[in-house]
Design brief:
This protein has helices spanning 3-10, 13-30, 32-35, 68-104, 106-120, 124-135, 139-166, 169-176, 181-189, 194-217, 229-236, 245-272. By secondary structure, it is an all-alpha fold.
Length: 278
């Protein structure tokens, strides 16, 4: 990383704040087996709905006597896995389609554009629900369903950038001296679209986590007894009067990690997009 870019990143408060939140949740998720005071699926039927701090449960227990803190830590693993892998899969496909469509143009670009229009015609959460309902709930299927909803977002953004780059002198010169389309895309176009890809990816992780939580809340996410933040809200919604900490703690975690990724994405956009500085 160049020194000027590093200095700009270190002087951008949203990047520092968002990066700190994301790093904290990542470390907690990685160290969940070491930090969790109890097994996340172990039930204590005589200790149901214990308030935070009671009987050795820092954040209390749920309706089955399971430790809320332990389930939050292991649930962070699921949320971050879904967020990162769905963005990696959907973003990778979207970037490839955006590069091909934007550089090739013609009927290829038209076909890819209509496919993106079809996907974007459905709200992301409804499309993800339909896909998971058709192929069955699981961690892999949740990642696949969310990735499909992200493909047109990346392809549209990258296509627009490629259309501008295709008319630039250095791309025209590379093509004029005999560079193949593949070589021109990989050597001259792709490096210049990495900045918007990074920004969009960081913003999309938060969206993916929200969609995964919605799927789990509706019972179409990762099947129980695997702890997820969305399923914890479902478990605690009927006990809001007696035990608000069950749903409240998972809701705060979702809000915090999504806010962290959004702050990180906004800060990276300010640093990496030169047009915002003019």
């Amino acid at each position: 990383m160049a020194a000027p870019l590093r200095r700009r990143i270190l002087r951008t408060p949203p990047i520092l704040a968002g990066g700190a939140v994301v790093l904290a949740f990542t470390l907690l998720a990685v160290a969940a087996p070491l930090l969790a005071p109890h097994e996340p699926d172990r039930t204590h039927l005589l200790l149901r709905l214990k308030p935070p701090g009671a009987d050795g449960f820092p954040l209390g227990t749920d309706a089955f006597g399971r430790d809320v803190l332990s389930r939050l830590l292991f649930g962070a693993r699921i949320s971050l896995q879904v967020g990162v892998w769905s963005v990696a899969l959907g973003g990778g496909i979207g970037v490839f389609l955006g590069l091909v469509g934007g550089y090739t143009g013609g009927w290829v670009d038209a076909v890819l554009g209509r496919l993106a229009d079809i996907i974007m015609a459905f709200p992301a959460i409804l499309l993800a629900l339909a896909i998971v309902a058709a192929i069955g709930p699981s961690l892999g299927n949740s990642i696949l369903a969310i990735a499909v909803t992200l493909i047109p977002r990346f392809s549209r953004v990258i296509r627009g950038v490629v259309l501008v780059l295709r008319a630039r002198e250095f791309v025209q010169a590379a093509h004029a001296i005999g560079g193949t389309p593949t070589r021109v895309i990989l050597r001259h176009v792709l490096p210049n679209v990495l900045s918007p890809v990074i920004v969009l990816a960081s913003l999309s992780v938060g969206t993916s986590i929200l969609v995964e939580a919605s799927l789990s809340f509706l019972g179409l996410g990762v099947p129980p007894p695997t702890p997820t933040w969305g399923s914890m809200i479902t478990d605690g919604k009927q006990y809001m009067d007696l035990a608000p900490w069950i749903a409240g703690c998972s809701g705060v975690c979702i809000m915090a990690v999504v806010l962290g990724f959004n702050l990180l994405g906004d800060g990276l956009r300010d640093v990496l997009d030169p047009q915002l500085k003019t």
